[in-house]
Amino acid sequence: MSVNGWTAEALLARTVEEGDCLLWKGSMASTNIPTVCVEADARRSVRRLLWQLLNGPIPANKFASCSCGEPRCVAPEHLVLMTKRQIAKRTAKTGVFANHVRVAKIAATKRAASPITWDDVARIRSAPRGQGLAIAKELGVSQMTVWRIRHHKSWKQPPSGFSVFSLGAV
Question: Does residue 129 sit in helix, strand or coil?
Fold first, then answer.
C-alpha cells in the first residue's frame, strides 16, 4: 500500500534504531515533527503517513503523535492518535513550551554568539548619553543594539542564582 507515493518500508528505511525507538534521519519541521516531501512544495508528517499506511485513515480531529516523547521517533509501536488538547496537555507537563524557560534559552543562545560581553553591557549602561554611536562602532553592532541594551530591552540581567550556563547554550 502507498500513501502520497510513500510506503511504510521506504519511510522506515530512513530511520536509525536507538533503544526501542526508530529515529527519523530526514528533515524535521520547525515544530520538531519528522516530515517528508510529498509534492514539489508540500511536506507531510512521517508519523501521520505511517499511521495511515499501517492502521488506515485518521479521524479529522486526531493527530499521530509518539508516546515515548522523543521528537524524532517514528516507531510504529510508539504511534498514538491524540487530539490537539491531549498533545498540549502532554507538552505542558514536560515544560517544553514553558515561555520563561524558552525565552531564557533563546536569549542565552543569542548571547553566546554575540560579540558583546557582560562587561560591554555594563560599560554601555554607564556611558554618558550621546556616546551610543561611538560605542556601537567600536563594538561592531548597530546603534539600535546599544539603545536596546541601555534601556534594558535586551541583555536583561538574569535573576540571582540563575545561570545562563545551566541552559546548555554556552
Answer: coil
CA dist., res. 129 & res. 137, Å (int): 15
Confidence of residue 96 (pLDDT cuts 50, 70, 90): low
CA distance 168 to 170: 6
- Asked if residue 70 lies in contact with residue 23, where contact means CB atoms within 8 angstroms, the answer is yes
Q: What is the pLDDT of residues 131-164, one digit of tens each?
A: 889 999 999 989 999 999 999 888 876 545 555 4
**How many Å apart are CA 41 and CA 51, to the nearest integer?**
22
- DSSP assigned state of 128: P
Contact 83, 63 (CB under 8 A): yes
Contact 62, 82 (CB under 8 A): yes
